[in-house]
Amino acid sequence: MDSLDLPHTSSFQGGSELFLRNVFENILQTYLKKNPTTKRIWELVQSVDNEKICYDHFTFMTLKIEGYGIDSMSSFFMDNGYKIGGGLDFPQKKLRGLWFSPPDIKIPENGHGLSNGPLPRLVMGEIIVDELSPGSQEIIRKYLKPAGGKQALLSSILGSLIWEKPTWSEFKQIAEENELAAWAFINGYTMNHLAFAVHRLKHRFSDINCIIQYLEENGFGLNQDGGVLNG
């Protein structure tokens, strides 16, 4: 793990850059603990040619209901310089999303990772719970109490649900209707996925096809849905 050593002079506006980077580091480490396959890929990429990783974006999934939606997670980051960059809508999935651009800060020439590299963009989605079936709504509302979303950031850092863990049958019922809703219901504010900034890699992995080949050679089966290079 990189040490979070920052230059004495920072161009960061809106709070403490070191604090924000520490928040990201804790969110990342929680995510890697919960996703051992991703952690292994993360380690493999860095093991070749002493490669240094930068992050393109971090993605989070939320449930749009009584204070648990995007706003519950985005408010902290917007207070620390992030700005809304645009919207994403997927009506068939009952999903609405926003992406956020990071604050404008100076990055050292060899800056990398979360220590002193570019801050990741953020993508946040929210399942429109009111558009789910009455049965799924009833289950979700039983667990998500009003105002609980105020603890969203802490939940993401700890990787712990704010609400009680639902039963398997409840999870399965929601999953049969909407897999993303079920994922958010069982994982809460834990990061959904991350993406490396491939264009910032310095060695052979700067070619995405080399990364794909290397991962396949090391036994990782890649998702073929929509093509391996599908974002």
Number of strands: 5
Order of helices and strands: HHEHEEHEHHHHEH
Under CATH, the topology is which?
2,3-Dihydroxybiphenyl 1,2-Dioxygenase, domain 1
Instruction: Count every helix, treating DSSP H or I runs of 4 or more residues as helices.
Output: 9
The main sheet orders its strands as 2-3-4-1-5
List the uncertain runs: 1-11, 225-231
Helix content: 25-40%
Structural class comes to alpha+beta
Q: What Rg do the Cα atoms give? A: 19 Å
Mean pLDDT: 84
Percentage of residues in strands? 15-25%
Q: Can you tell me the CATH architecture?
A: Roll
Q: What is the CATH top level name? A: Alpha Beta
Structure report:
The structure is a single chain. The protein is globular. The model is unreliable at 1-11 and 225-231 (pLDDT under 50). Strand 2 and strand 3 (95-101) form a beta hairpin. Helix 7 (168-177) runs antiparallel to helix 8. The chain contains nine helices and five strands, in the order ααβαββαβααααβα. Strands 2-3-4-1-5 form a five-stranded mixed beta sheet. The chain has helices at 17-34, 36-47, 70-79, 113-116, 134-143, 152-158, 168-177, 179-187, 208-217, and strands at residues 55-64, 83-90, 95-101, 121-128, 193-196. It has one domain (17-217): 2,3-Dihydroxybiphenyl 1,2-Dioxygenase, domain 1. The protein is an alpha+beta fold and 231 residues long.
Secondary structure topology:
Blueprint: H1 17-34, H2 36-47, E1 55-64, H3 70-79, E2 83-90, E3 95-101, H4 113-116, E4 121-128, H5 134-143, H6 152-158, H7 168-177, H8 179-187, E5 193-196, H9 208-217
Parallel strand pairs: 1-4
Antiparallel strand pairs: 1-5, 2-3, 3-4
Helix pairs in contact: 7-8
Cofactor: Fe(2+)
Enzyme class: oxidoreductase
Pfam families: HGLS
